[in-house]
Design a protein that fits this description.
The chain is of the alpha/beta class. About 45% of the residues lie in helices and about 15% in strands. It is built from 23 helices and 16 strands. Strands 1, 2, 3, 6, 14, 15 and 16 form a 7-stranded mixed β-sheet that branches. The protein has a 4-stranded mixed β-sheet with strand order 8-10-7-11. Strand 4 and strand 5 form a beta hairpin. Helix 20 crosses helix 21. It is globular and about 65 Å long.
Length: about 500
């Protein structure tokens, strides 16, 4: 009881300090930036807490594939003479620091996506970190640091250390390509299958697969109800989540621009796939086996699950580890038709006239990284773990285990020599084709209404055979649906506030 009271009193002191940093009466005297920085960083004095055991909550995939145990073992070996160690929390990768933290149940160090970590920043449940003094600071691009930025009294602080870049990539198995692709599916003779350059061509090839006679039963399969990936269709045509670079939740832009064109294509894909499994969120876990069993040619998901595909391929008995690694390909997503209609143009034309008939596809993305709980009793030991885990050697090792694209430029340069995907992701981020997930609390109100809209949109092609009225047969109806979605998100945010 005394320990709990002591912890709560200490945290109350920290909250009062940080609350003073982020607002208050304008007439009150405010410290200058250097004094503010010293106040906020006062917990990190470099003195490792003797006997501290850092509780680490990591990504489930990284745990399953063995990386986290290897990381913790290496850290404990490196710091065995310094009196500190780390241990993996044997719980699900998600936590609620606001609930668990005050009672000591939460992690000291938490690896998560920026939007999940940063929703705890507003209420000071995670600590601003002295990133400018860290080895990785100059190696990580500002666009990645921005995902963890928070403003305190006009000064920018960072509440997380970026580790890897996330965005949708297209996966396929090379040996599942049709034998005639070079003759019949490479009209521009550039050595790349046309259906990986244009979504219109991929739609046409997927239609061919449904007729039979191809190496796979389906061409492209994906969760058409997944907001993270399907929002890219909307964003390509002018949609955005929140205004002012994701910081203004009063401006909800999912119906902005010609977003209805993107939504129209989601509906087209749902009808073309003609597979109700893609209307279920569980498809993401089934996708590994679908690809390995040659049920489908390709799907879109994030780089961090690369090894899950490899594992499924090897489990079939048809590949060794080395053969699967050589056969599995991860490339950038195809371009979308400028018309917003997957059937309006001849697929050959969309490949030969890319500049006029197609546009580069924009995808939602995120930055995964480490944060430190404001409730930790060992901030210096926790920071030591984070610095160790984000060092060049560990980031390269994480890629070897998981296939993720690192946020460190030096690690990315090394890995790009053998894995060009890393360079592709950096290039797409730099050119604005990856829209980083807003890192504010209000993002939590996006998912439920957006998923409900996508379910309605994706089930629409099946209503007629059920004797039900179609809801989204016109662009006007789709636009109205997007506007209702924006209203629902706004209402949810206002209710939350």
């Amino acid at each position: 009881m005394k320990k709990t009271l002591s912890l709560l009193l200490a945290f109350a002191l920290l909250l009062s300090l940080l609350a003073g940093c982020s607002g208050g009466d304008a007439e009150n005297a405010k410290p200058d930036q250097s004094e503010l920085y010293e106040q906020v960083m006062a917990r990190f004095d470099g003195k490792l807490e003797e006997g501290a055991v850092v509780k680490v909550l990591e990504n489930d995939t990284a745990v399953e594939l063995g990386y986290v145990d290897a990381l913790i073992e290496a850290f404990n070996e490196a710091f065995k003479d310094k009196g500190i160690s780390a241990e993996r929390m044997n719980v699900d990768q998600y936590s609620d620091l606001a609930t668990d933290g005050p009672y000591g149940y939460g992690p000291d160090v938490w690896y998560q996506a920026n939007d999940i970590l940063m929703k705890y920043a507003d209420k000071q449940h995670i600590l601003p970190l002295p990133v400018q003094e860290m080895d990785c600071f100059e190696q990580i691009p500002q666009s990645a640091w921005n995902a963890y930025a928070t403003d305190m009294n006009g000064e920018t602080f960072y509440c997380g250390i970026p580790v890897n870049v996330q965005s949708g990539m297209l996966y396929y198995i090379e040996s599942s390509l049709p034998a005639d692709w070079q003759e019949n599916w490479d009209v521009n003779q550039n050595g790349t299958p046309d259906f990986f350059e244009s979504y219109t061509a991929l739609y046409a090839y997927s239609e061919l697969c449904k007729q039979g006679g191809q190496p796979t039963q389906y061409g492209y399969l994906d969760e058409t109800v997944d907001t993270y990936f399907m929002s890219g269709y909307l964003m390509t045509f002018g949609a955005y989540i929140f205004g002012d670079n994701g910081t203004d939740p009063s401006d909800i832009g999912l119906a902005a621009g010609d977003a209805y064109k993107g939504a129209r294509m989601v509906r087209q894909w749902a009808g073309q796939m003609n597979n109700t499994e893609v209307l279920d969120k569980s498809f993401s876990s089934a996708a590994y086996q679908y690809l390995a069993d040659r049920v489908m040619l390709c799907t879109v998901t994030t780089p961090d699950v690369y090894r899950m595909f490899i594992r499924s391929m090897v489990a079939t008995g048809n590949w060794t580890e080395e053969e699967a690694t050589a056969d599995l390909k991860m490339i950038t997503v195809p371009r979308l038709p400028a018309s917003g209609d997957l059937t309006a143009d001849k697929w050959e034309d969309t490949v030969l006239q890319q500049d006029t008939l197609t546009v580069e596809t924009k995808m939602m993305g995120g930055i995964n990284g480490y944060g430190i709980s404001a409730y930790t009793k060992c901030p210096n030991a926790s920071l030591a773990f984070v610095e160790f885990a984000t060092a060049y050697e560990q980031v390269v090792l994480r890629n070897r285990y998981l296939g993720v694209a690192p946020a460190r430029a030096d690690a990315a340069a090394t890995i790009s020599e053998t894995d060009p995907t890393v360079g592709i992701l950096f290039d797409r981020l730099d050119k604005g084709y990856i829209s980083i997930m807003p890192a504010i609390t209000e993002i939590g109100q996006l998912w439920t209404p957006a998923e409900s809209f996508l379910i309605d949109l994706s089930t629409d092609p099946y209503r007629e055979e059920r004797g039900e009225e179609l809801l989204f047969t016109t662009d006007e109806a789709i636009q109205a649906g997007l506007e209702r979605l924006c209203t629902q998100i706004r209402d949810a945010i206002e209710t939350l506030s």
